[in-house]
Amino acid sequence: MELFDNLPAMDLMRSEKMTFVQLIIPVESAHRAVSYLGELGLLQFRDLNVDKSPFQRTFVNQVKRCGEMSRKLRFIKDQINKAGLVSSTRPALQLDIELEELEIELSEHENELIEMNSNSEKLRQTYNELVEFKMVLQKAGGFLVSAQSHAVVEGRELDENVYLKDDYVERASLLEQSEPSNQAGLRFISGIICKSKALRFERMLFRATRGNMLFHQATAEEHIVDPVSAEMIEKTVFVVFFSGEQAKTKILKICEAFGANCYSVPEDITKQRQITREVLSRLSELEATLDAGVNHRNKALTSIGFHLKKWTIMVRKEKAVYDTLNMLNFDVTKKCLVGEGWCPIFAKPQIQEALQRATFDSNSQLGIIFHVMDAVDSPPTYFRTNCFTNAFQEIVDAYGVARYQEANPAVYTVITFPFLFAVMFGDWGHGICLLLGALILIAREKKLGSQKLGSFMEMLFGGRYVLLLMSLFSIYCGLIYNEFFSVPYHIFGASAYKCRDTTCSDSHTAGLVKYHDPYPFGVDPSWRGSRSELPFLNSLKMKMSILLGVTQMNLGIMLSYFNARFFGSSLDIRYQFLPQMVFLNSLFGYLAFLIVIKWCTGSQADLYHVMIYMFLSPTEDLGENQLFWGQRPLQVLLLLSAIIAVPLMLFPKPFILRKLHSERFQGRTYGILGTSEIDLDLEPDSARKHHEDFDFSEIFVHQMIHSIEFVLGAVSNTASYLRLWALSLAHSELSTVFYEKVLLLAWGFDNFVIRLVGLAVFAFATAFILLMMETLSAFLHALRLHWVEFQNKFYHGDGYKFIPFSYASLADEED
């Protein structure tokens, strides 16, 4: 064991050692100190005002001011986007501006923009009214001429039809007795309405006037721009002929209700032309005024856009500083702020240097006190990762954040995850396609990292190095399976088999004989298409899956040993690690051993029979299923070991813990035996050991559940690794179907179009089914094997992340 102690520590194997610290900061240097700590990003503050609401905290007014400035900046950004301008991504060179000055400047810009928007809306409204008036003058003139010549006839017909259909309709209709000499009472209202409302508007007018009106409409040639939403609206010009003040009042109310704009059109054509000329003149003036206003507004927005990014970052930082200051408490003198938090031990000198700079820069007479304290709570978990290891750490953290300083599965996941994926996905043709995609993402890393990506592309970009390793391992496993889009190649030399006769007419089903040494690397190409291909590959991949599964589960149990050794828990080593190793390897380790022996000796023994009768009749003679001398007594010994290991896992530990607990409280001993089960943490330089109330029944039930789960899980987890065989076989067979039944079938026709269609279908199936759906499927199954089968042997995953106060984390945040 001294060998393990002398090994150098791995960076990712254990989380960084943390320490609990207290800061006593004079009020005059508090803002600058927190700001410098935000730039450093290595201190996680603890909220000392949990019992207070956000409105009861000290710096609530400053937070409100920052929130108001953020709102103004969002308003300005929206205005820039609406104007179709692009705000500068690079902050403009400008002298540093104070927060108070920025607040005043933002208010001025907001008021200026609101005023310009208001004036623009008024001008646009006036412009729209003039455009509508122009269209009404153009369309209504034709209505008036035709209406005057045909009003009498249409009025009579309308009145007769309505009277016949409805007995309650008044008989004194609008034009019932109208003669050419008696048309002085005929009046009209002209206007314009949205085209979508025109039909309902006409029906309402007809019902309100009981049919005593004439309605003419025509679609406006120009669309009107809505001044609020800036959308183009299609409108319809209408003219309503009626008689009487009562009908006029009803029609005007209906027009108001439907949002129709009414315009007075003179009957005299000369006056119409005169008014049209005036309207056109005013329209040209308004167009010039609107263009000048838009140009002025765009210039103002462009000048603001140069500073927008810098101002946004500044306001976010200030708000973050005041939010952090609200987590601090005043001391009894009200002259100092007291803060507490966690930091990595390696960061203490950097934090102290930042605090000294803050004291010097703020010209404070008092220095900032920074000292280490003991804490009852467990420290947060912090792993220093880079762009390569971060994605693998995220895969592990998605299951659960590691408990403080427990073994980190991400160290092994870097290799085991892409390898198990490749076992299921193995095809070096498909692997090359994935490799090209990963290399494109890595080559454009800087460009894509600075862009706003969609959810799918962001996930793909974040896992680019996972994709890289998955593709490399897929190429490796594809070479072992000897599959290139399901086609075998003689890459590593000639096949070890040849035909029995010279014709080779039936060589795929019979007549193959082995004539020299086995194929040097991977599966011999001659197996492809042979009668025994599927039984051979099934046997190979199934046994290989069991070997890989037993190996990875043993690795998980070994890591539980290193966890127990690190935390000084001899109980976990004696009554958890050792029984688990004995139980797993007595059964499934022995099965893996038999597989290797069978492969090495070429024996025809039935391993199913051996394992079943190991339990049913362990003393029975093995006969032709015996693989080596002394196999039967070894099986009896292994079976007894597995049976004894179960009570060793279940009973000793709870009773020993109860004995130690009773002795500790009777004063006979003060030694504490650390154990992971009762959460006794060793935190160097930081946290004190703490002990919860001992409940024997709870400990015993927990141990019983843990033991039963392991015993049953040893069987189910081993069976779960057979998914490696199943998905590998499915991927291979699916690829073969697409190749033989689509590509080769199409290539058998002497027709270019059919060949092109076959090639397109094959490419589509390869890209979307094999490279997308199968990749996702294999990824999820590899994820399950790591989360359930591997990590449950040693990984608690009940910690919490170290989230320091850092300006860097504000860069991509949206308010």
Automatic annotation (TrEMBL):
Task: Give the bilayer topology.
Answer: Multi-pass membrane protein
| Top-rank lineage group of the source organism | Eukaryota
From the record, give the transmembrane residue ranges.
419-442, 463-481, 544-562, 582-599, 634-651, 752-773
Q: Kindly give the InterPro entries that the UniProt entry links to this protein.
A: V-ATPase_116kDa_su, V-type_ATPase_116kDa_su_euka
GO MF entry, a single one: proton-transporting ATPase activity, rotational mechanism
Coiled-coil features, chain-numbered ranges: 92-126
* Keywords in alphabetical order: Coiled coil, Hydrogen ion transport, Ion transport, Membrane, Transmembrane, Transmembrane helix, Transport
Cellular compartment(s): Membrane
**Mind telling me which PANTHER family this protein's record contains?**
V-TYPE PROTON ATPASE SUBUNIT A1 (PTHR11629:SF72), VACUOLAR PROTON ATPASES (PTHR11629)
Role, per record = Essential component of the vacuolar proton pump (V-ATPase), a multimeric enzyme that catalyzes the translocation of protons across the membranes. Required for assembly and activity of the V-ATPase.
Q: What is this protein called?
A: V-type proton ATPase subunit a
**Which species is this UniProt entry from?**
Tetracentron sinense
